[in-house]
């Protein structure tokens, strides 16, 4: 994937989403040379820094998520617990809980906290369920999912990101996370079917392999489109797909096989 999405706060209109997306693209490019040390754990920062980070997480949940309508208790609790600042470059940790995306290197970004919460809530993951994530990125969305799901299988096309995220997730005790380096367009069929699938980069169509790997009743949250995009919730039924548009978004395009296939 060439980036992580960041829609406008709340119910912002489509024009604002596109404008914000242009800013995100600049941020992602600027972050390509940013070094980051994800292996410095929260304990190493000392008790005062830990307390400060915990307070910032509580504030983030209160002002950015709950006020915008995020209601899922498991999602809110996961967002309070997972140390987002460990998933961003050292130089940007002071901005980790701000209301926006941040560059993480390799022309990619970590999504705005609100969109992470929105996508996770839309998945309606229950304890014990199996989730596929296409686009590991920094590993932050993965860590949130690991607090809720039974098993999380995540695929990242950018190897340095995937390896770094795998190492950090292991350090953080996310033992139910399984990382694969590769093109996520084809999903991870060896562990299918999945109860839920989340995609963090935008193809211009719904990848058929992902639909095939959903259980009946399974949910897929995915941004679709080139330029102007929409975040969709797709539910597989015995008769096909039930579709619901969630919000306008601006994700960078899915790369790899997605660019070679004409829908």
Task: Explain what this protein looks like in three dimensions.
By secondary structure, the chain is of the alpha/beta class. It has one domain (14-259): Rossmann fold (3-Layer(aba) Sandwich), CATH 3.40.50. The protein is 31% helix and 22% strand. It has seven helices and nine strands. A seven-stranded mixed β-sheet has the order 5-4-3-6-7-8-9. It has a two-stranded antiparallel ribbon with strand order 1-2.
Supply database-style keywords.
263 residues; alpha/beta; Rossmann fold; seven-stranded mixed sheet; two-stranded antiparallel ribbon; 7 helices; 9 strands; 22% strand; globular; disordered N terminus
User: Could you say what the CATH topology is called?
Assistant: Rossmann fold
Low-confidence stretches: 1-43
Shape: globular
Number of domains: 1
Please give the count of helices: 7
**How much strand?**
15-25%
CATH superfamily: Vaccinia Virus protein VP39
Number of strands: 9
Which structural class do the helices and strands define? alpha/beta
Average pLDDT score: 85
How do the helices and strands follow one another from N- to C-terminus? HHHEEHEHEHEEHEEE
Short description:
The protein has 263 residues and is α/β, with parallel strands linked by helices. Helices cover 31% and strands 22% of the residues.
